[in-house]
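Handout, tutorial session.
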Amino acid sequence: MDELLEIIAEMTARIPTDTLMHLADEIQRIDDVSELYTIQFNPNLRSLCNRFLDACESSNCSTAVIASTLRGACSVASVLNQRTAVNLVWTGPQTEYISIRHTESVLTEMINSARNQLFMVSFVAYRAPAILGALHNALDRGVRVRMLLESSKNQGGRQVDYDSLGFMKLALPGIELFQWMQKNAKGVVHAKCAVTDAERLFVTSANISEAAMEHNIEAGVLITGGDAPKQMMRHLQALIDTRVIVPFET
């Protein structure tokens, strides 16, 4: 049972709470632990989920107990996240000394929780299916989604051949995209952050990419409440109002 509890704790750090609650519902409907292997998991989390399934089988717990334990862990994680002003966020090797929230989990959770508006900034954006899926759902909910990305060389940028702006416009037609227009281009959009409803701010080293979400070592902080999220939203809006950043035109 101890091994199962440790793995569930790791899962709450790496997987969005709503996803885990849905998993608990699926487990609740299964009569025998051996049938858990029929559940479809995110391929990017296959190793962790396989460990979870093995621990479930060796724990000799019923599916009802496993589902309840998973729900309890999600509830505790939600309460702690709401009460903590600043959380460390990490992608890369884990250690036994501290449980750190995972970059993709935090970013997906922020997008899923957006009620009115979301603004994201990244150097590049490509091959991040979980993030794109969450953004698509946010747009369907009527959330205003805006994003600032680095321009490709063909669009006046300095360093990037890949057209992140064109890719995001094609993938998410409802998104509002912005680019930094410089008279004498010497800098790049190197910031990576996301702000939701002027209430939560995530500052990270991670781009919106598969490599950043799954393979690299990336670090960031999630700030809930206080002035920082409001300041960032006001700053980004001011950059638009003063036309330092302008809408991307295809």
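The second record follows below. Compare its token runs with those of the first.
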Amino acid sequence: MADHLTEEEQIESLKRWWAENGKGIVSGIVLALVGYFGYQWWQTSEREKAEAASNLYQEFVEAVSANDGQPDNRQLTTAQSLGRQLKEEFPKRIYTSQASLRLAALSAAGNDLESAAKDLQWVVDNSDKTELQLLAKRRLAAVKAARGEPDEALKLLEGNVPPAFAALYSETRGDILLQKGDKEGAHEAYQQALAQLLPAQANSAQVLRLKAESVAPVAASDDSAADNAPAAESEAANESDDAQESDEQ
């Protein structure tokens, strides 16, 4: 009898515990299941989006790579259409930023600087990748300078950038300053770029040296020597004449 009562007491105790905690347990299980299946759905959705973006980008690459990278009007129109679709449907995918950079390069090569600027600005405003934003900003500065907007271009190059981009930004700044006629500023920028080169960028050193040398200021001693040269020549000529007169006498 005692055992039977103990079992009944245990059952009653279990019932009371379930009444107090059962709903919470069920809710926890439901939430866990919702979270699990929700995560699985999100993963599937993300995978499908990634595949769709990848397929669109592959079509884009085929269009812009046609004719050895010289697409005709029809292929270029196809590429532009695919680029717009990527921007509308997958604005944060790296494929979209890469497509915009490629379209900007094609536009710049065709002297369509306005279209190039728009595609580059899109990358600056929308890309989640800092490296792509910095690359687009540097190219946008070059395009703006080519459009006759050097001051706006220089503003894009202001501020600190990661070491991998420092030399490139300084070189571009030098090119724009030279375009403005500021040879001293250009020389300083090229020298700075040389100092900022990373070991992996050593192949750019020779071009930068040539640029720096082409706008290097003439040393003061060289100016003095050049100024004194005519006087020295005149003095030597006079001495020669005096010597000749002396011989004749």
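Points raised in discussion: DSSP finds eleven helices and no strands in the chain.
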